[in-house]
Structure formats: structure tokens, C-alpha cells
Amino acid sequence: MKLSRNLFLGLCSMLVLGYLYYSGRISSRGRGFRSVYDQQGFLLRLNASLPLELVYKYGNLSEGTCKPGYTAAKMTAIYPRFHKPAPMFLDPGYKKFYKVGDYPPPFGVRSQDGVIDLLLAATKNYGLGNELDSLSCKTCIIVGNGGILTNRSLGQKIDAFDVVVRLNEAPIRGFEKDVGTKTTMRITYPEGAIQKPELYEAQSLFVLSAFKSLDFKWLRYMVFNQRLHSTEGFWKSVARYVPRDPSDMRILNPYFIQEASFMLIGLPHNNGQLGRGNIPTLGAVAITMALHNCDEVAVAGFGYNMSMPHAPLHYYEKIRMSAMRESWTHNISKEKEFLVKLVKAGVIQDLTKGICGAGCR
Questions:
Q1: How far apart are CA 352 and CA 239, in angstroms?
Q2: Rg (the chain; Cα; Å)
Q3: C-alpha 336: how far from its chain's center?
Q4: In what order do the strands lie in the sheet with 249-251?
Q5: How far apart are the two ends of the chain, measured CA to CA in Å?
Q6: 17 alpha-carbon distance from chain centroid
């Protein structure tokens, strides 16, 4: 009986090792077994060269031609857990999507059904718009707010992308040469939204990324153009009016915050609750959204250089880099590890080369 039990355990061990080997989790090259993937599930050895199966698909396309499905294909090659379908914005079918109903904001929408259903009924639109949604191949750029954008003259290059994503209150006026003039969407939360109506672009989507339950209630006031009587519960002043029609307002799918935090970056789960150091920056969330919804993805204005504490944090104000050391919610070092992987593997293109500099060569 004892011999049979030992034999059974030995067979089980061999089966497990065999599964790990053939699924690529371990390799027999070198001394003993070693992992091919890191703790988050990314390939350990990353470079921008195309895997053989992608060479046949994209290798003959002329430079500058949009490559359909390129970002998702590259992402899957270095992160096999990646699944492309994940809509940008909440729509009436959001309750069926992944686990957004299991977590409270910012990782989900638990207990927010009533206000979200009301908002979706009022906005009535859940995509980028007919013209962009009908494109067979979309190029997207996430424009960060980093001081590294100053004097880079990237404005025209940024405006050439199909979808230009801007974050929070980062201005355009007066900075057009460096940051461009085009805005497809501006992703923000109440405390980060532009407070002066005249500073909004003439046309763009206003996209809420909700970090707390109160943010959905705030959006209700904005959508229905109602007076906001109290700002209690917000950590600083908020916009009291957003000059957009309801049809131009959206709710960012909170799955991207959940995926970026728990899966891609590897921040503390904290039982699905907001906690110290487990919230990705809005820039990382926007990049995660683009990985799922854009055929090619670029970024500009990203990269916190903590070795230069006196460098400007943003291109439009005098706050210094050292301010990020005081961040309670973000883990900048862990987030940088994630972004470096994407740049090294050529999943995204970094126009300002602030994410990893020479380290990605």
C-alpha cells in the first residue's frame, strides 16, 4: 500500500513537471529547471524583434502602415495570459464583463448599478464614435503629463495618430508645439478634471475613471447639468461644470484598473479594496486600455526620473519630481517595471524615451 502511494505521488509530480515544461513555464536548458516567465507572467527575456509567426504577418508591410492586431499579438507573445476583448467604456452589458461587479471602485462597480444604469441611459453612446469605431486599424497615443515633453516639438507627430488620449487637466493652449492640438478623449476623475470650462477642447470625449463611489455621483451632476451643492468626500476641489453633452461623456471600464494593478503590475490585492500603494497611475490605466483596443500604441511624456528630484514633474507647472515620493496610492518603481517590459518588447513605442532611456536598447 505504501509503495503504491509513493508511486502515485511520483507519477503526479512527473505529470506536473511535464505540463509546466510543455506549457513553457519552465525550461530544461542550463542548470536544472529555470522559469521562462516572471512572477506576473511576462517573458523574462524581452526584445523588440518579432516572433517568427509575426514576421510572416507583419514583416512585409511598408513603414508607416497601420498593422492590424499588432499590439495584441505582441502583447500575447510576451504575456500569454492576455485576452484582447475588453471594451473601452461601460455599456449596458457591463454586468456580464469579467469581475467588475465583484469589486467596489476603483477596481469594479459593486453597489453602483443604480447610478451607472442612469448615466448610461442618459449618455446613450458607448464607443469612440462612428468614424473611429469603423476603422479597420487604429493607431493610438497616450500623452502623459511629464516634464520630459518640454521642447521636444512632438506636436505634429502626436496629432498624426488616429486616437489621442490626454489625462486629467493637462493643457494644450500654449503648449501646442510640444503636445499637439488634437484630443480624442480626456480621461480624468473629479479632482483631476479641468475646472475652467473655457480650457476644454472644442471637441473630445470626457471619460470618467472612477476611483471611489462618490465619483459616479459627481458624474451624475455633470451629465444632468445639476448644481453640485457639496464637495465633501473629495480630497481637493473638483470641477462643478463640464461643457460636454451627455452623448460625449463616457465611463472608463474599471477592468483596466483591476488588470493593471493586480495582474500586469502586481500591486497588493488588499481584498479588492483601495489601499496603500495598490492604485496604478492614470497613465498606466490608459495604456492598459489601449493594449486591448488599439492596433498600434505609442506614448509620450511618460517616465519619472526619481534621481532628478528637482526636475519638473509636469510640462505645464513647477511641481518637482520629488513630489512623487509622497504618493500614498502609487508604486512608481513597480509600475516602471511594467512599462519597461512593454517598451523593451516593442509592444508600445515611447516617443520621448523617458520610460527606460538607454536601458531598452
A1: 30
A2: 22
A3: 13
A4: 249-251, 205-208, 185-188, 163-167, 139-143, 296-300, 348-350
A5: 59
A6: 35
* Nearest alpha carbon to residue 196 among 261, 258, 240, 256: 240
Interatomic CA distance for residues 157 and 143, integer angstroms: 11
Q: How far is CA 220 from CA 123, 146, 149, in A?
A: 10, 31, 34
The values of phi and psi at residue 207, to 5°, are: -120, 120
DSSP state of 196: S
Residue 358 corresponds to which amino acid? Answer: A
Q: Which residues contact 159 (CB under 8 A, 6 or more apart)?
A: 180, 181, 182
User: In this structure, what DSSP letter does residue 188 have?
Assistant: E
Q: Could you tell me the sign of the dihedral formed by the alpha carbons of 294, 297, 300, 306, in that order?
A: positive
Distance CA 275, CA 266 (A): 14
pLDDT for res 213:
96
User: What whole-number distance in Å separates Cα of residue 292 and Cα of residue 296?
Assistant: 10
Nearest to 106 by CA among 259, 210, 193: 210
Q: What are phi and psi of 359, to 5 degrees?
A: -70, -15
The amino acid occupying position 309 is: P
What ranges make up the beta strands (E) of 32-71? 34-35
Helix axes of 70-78 and 282-293: crossing angle, nearest 10 degrees: 110
| Entry pTM | 0.87
Top-confidence residue, 113 or 146: 113
Check: CB of residue 119 under 8 Å from CB of residue 216: yes
Arithmetic mean of pLDDT, 220-244: 93
Which residues lie across from 298 on neighbouring strands? 141, 349
